[in-house]
């Protein structure tokens, strides 16, 4: 992908204020950031780099944090205060880490009750449901189930 297609500033979702976000506002910010790229492969490439996050140190990749139902290894955990759903994630490959990050960013730093009441449409909204394999889509659905579980604790 040409460097000129990369945003010169971080996408809006990376600059969300300290106010309590909602899944709806996070999802809209993600759509606003990635919809301008009409080529799905370029969009996916940018999502992988922009949403990957920092990952987890090898020692912090705990068996109990693995997401069941993912064909790839995906670690997902909740950190921070009880009133905010703050997520940390990692995966065995850059592609999976970026896709996991996309899903996590929808729910990141929201009220757990808001997360429990919300169902993301980010994959179809960005056309990724047409690009990803059924196995990958099932794994991402399993991630959302795990996020719901984390929000309920």
Key terms:
153 residues; mainly alpha; two-stranded antiparallel sheet; disordered N terminus
Short description:
The chain has 153 residues and is mainly alpha-helical.
Characterise this structure:
- The chain has helices at residues 23-34, 40-51, 94-107, 112-116, 122-125, 134-151, and strands spanning 74-79, 86-91.
- The chain is mainly alpha-helical and 153 residues long.
- The protein has a two-stranded antiparallel sheet.
- Helix 1 (23-34) packs across helix 3 (94-107).
**With helices defined by DSSP (H or I, 4 residues minimum), what is the helix count?**
6
Could you describe the largest sheet, including whether it forms a barrel? 2 strands, antiparallel
Helix content: 40-55%
Number of E-state strands: 2
Cα distance, first to last residue? Answer: 41 Å
User: How would you write the strand order of the largest sheet?
Assistant: 1-2
Provide the low-confidence segments as ranges: 1-18
Rg, Cα atoms, Å = 15 Å
Strand content: 5-15%
Mass-distribution shape? globular
Structural class: mainly alpha
Overall pLDDT score: 88
Helix and strand run: HHEEHHHH
């Amino acid at each position: 992908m040409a460097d000129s297609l990369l945003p010169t500033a971080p996408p809006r979702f990376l600059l969300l204020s300290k106010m309590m976000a909602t899944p709806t506002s996070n999802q809209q910010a993600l759509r606003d950031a990635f919809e301008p790229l009409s080529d799905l492969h370029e969009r996916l490439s940018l999502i992988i780099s922009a949403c990957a996050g920092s990952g987890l140190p090898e020692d912090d990749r705990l068996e109990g944090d693995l997401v069941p139902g993912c064909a790839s290894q995906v670690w997902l955990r909740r950190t921070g205060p009880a009133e905010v759903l703050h997520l940390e994630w990692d995966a065995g490959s850059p592609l999976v880490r970026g896709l996991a990050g996309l899903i996590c960013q929808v729910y990141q730093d929201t009220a757990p009750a808001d997360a429990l009441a919300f169902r993301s449409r980010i994959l179809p909204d960005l056309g990724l449901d047409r690009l990803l394999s059924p196995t990958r889509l099932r794994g991402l659905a399993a991630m959302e189930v795990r996020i719901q579980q984390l929000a309920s604790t």
